[in-house]
């Protein structure tokens, strides 16, 4: 199972109370399931509004089950930002 780093930004970082943490998952769906297990409550609600980058590439509308994670990869959790 690949080891990846999940990085939280803005409201996600506040809800997780950490900037980043390691997970083992082979898909984005698996990583997010692990995040929800570790952080039930507010972060779970924030994740519903987030977009994600995997190794710098936007996930967009792809099904999270189809987004493969690589060993040493990074998942960025990006809540909606005000302004522009």
UniProtKB/TrEMBL annotation:
<protein>
    <submittedName>
        <fullName>Thiamine biosynthesis protein ThiS</fullName>
    </submittedName>
</protein>
<dbReference type="Pfam" id="PF02597">
    <property type="entry name" value="ThiS"/>
</dbReference>
<dbReference type="InterPro" id="IPR003749">
    <property type="entry name" value="ThiS/MoaD-like"/>
</dbReference>
<dbReference type="InterPro" id="IPR012675">
    <property type="entry name" value="Beta-grasp_dom_sf"/>
</dbReference>
<dbReference type="InterPro" id="IPR016155">
    <property type="entry name" value="Mopterin_synth/thiamin_S_b"/>
</dbReference>
């Amino acid at each position: 199972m690949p080891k990846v780093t999940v990085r939280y930004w803005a409201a996600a970082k506040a809800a997780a109370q950490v900037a980043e943490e390691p997970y083992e998952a082979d898909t984005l769906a698996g990583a997010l399931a692990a995040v929800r297990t570790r952080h039930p409550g507010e972060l779970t609600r924030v994740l519903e509004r987030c977009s994600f980058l995997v190794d710098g590439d936007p996930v967009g509308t792809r099904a999270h089950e189809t987004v493969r994670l690589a060993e040493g990869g990074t998942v960025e959790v990006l809540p909606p930002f005000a302004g522009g």
